[in-house]
Specification:
The protein is built from eleven helices and two strands. The protein is mainly alpha-helical and 413 residues long. The chain has one domain (6-412). It has a two-stranded antiparallel sheet with strand order 1-2. The chain is elongated and about 85 Å long. Keywords: Membrane, Transmembrane, Transmembrane helix. This is Gustatory receptor. The chain crosses the membrane at residues 9-26, 46-66, 136-160, 258-281, 293-315, 389-410.
Amino acid sequence: MESPPKSKTSFGELFLRFILMMLGFLGDKPKENCVTVAFRVTRSMAILLLSFAEFLYEVCAAMEAVMSWHSEGNRIAIIGILYDINYVVRTASTFTLISAFCWKATALTSLHESLIILNETNPQANSKSRRKENRLAVVAVSVFVTFMAVNISTRLWGAFQTGSSILSWSSPPFLSVTLLQEAIFKLCALTFQEALRVLYAGYLGILLANFRANSASETLSLLDESIIKNQTSKNDLIGLWFVREAALTFAEKLEKTFGIIFSLLFVTDVLRLVCIVGDALSPQQTTPQRIRLVASVMLCLSSFLINVDGLISLMDKEKETRAHLYKLRSFWARDPLQSLDVMSNKPDTPANNDHYGVSQYQVCTVLSAFESSCFGSRKVAVAWNGLGYIGRGTVISVFGWIITFYVFLLGQH
């Protein structure tokens, strides 16, 4: 397949695409040869296995911490529980996300190619989304680099301060390890994998921005054109239906393929924010840990906001398109005299055969059928699996719950 025109592909999309391809979470082409697939799967599976090893490591550490609390006769507080399971939640959510990324690598490549084809069939497709796509890429890469830099510096700082201290819970079946060895292992098996979420969220956000600015907006553009020129021809109606169906087909494919990814990003980001709230109140925090905590908040919020911004923007575009459809129907229904220029009394000439046979009643009937067939339950927005369509109210509710939980923990503290 020929590469898309450069004017339709932003630098941000190309850059994030290259990074994900190097990591094995995105294929080069929808149909790859066996050798290419083997190398890609090997890279992604190595990252996945490291993440799983870190998950087992943290489960054993949490069990040892709980047993230590119990043997000493201490009362286990909610804050203490959150502190002990913080890394378990982080590693479990990271492993789940990376598993989903590996599973959907080929599907994401196919989806990207479908979006390119969809934009190429649209003669009015343009690069008006490039600025937002580049901004999303800059945010994703900046957060990724900052998170990695903060974790590398603070973990090495803390490890060198303690020298060769052996971890108290590193008993068999684990070998005894120093804090420096643990820090290096966490950097390789947790920090890097955890930071991948913002790159993946950024790439999905770029695809959503591209879809919203082009195919999802084309129906709205055609409706605006019909409203401005005060007439609707048969070809206009056919074009409206065609571009709307094309956008709906892509949206349905996007939801079916990546609804689970959007849901996982949302749920894991919220869980991480909840654990961070408990972690922030723990008396066991050191200065390097507090700095890493700030970086974790930045990572989760960036991933969360990129995720919900793209989905909310699509829903806003859907509402705007439907409002313009109502406006066009209202124009045709309110006054027969305003639409005489497209009544069936037009002469059947080559210049006017677009309009011939399209009466006001027929236009109203077609627009009504168009609304019932292509709107309502069918949207160019994407629903989360098990969570429905995202709205600003959902985001406000989530942060309200987190603030309430924080106030509750302050009382316990």
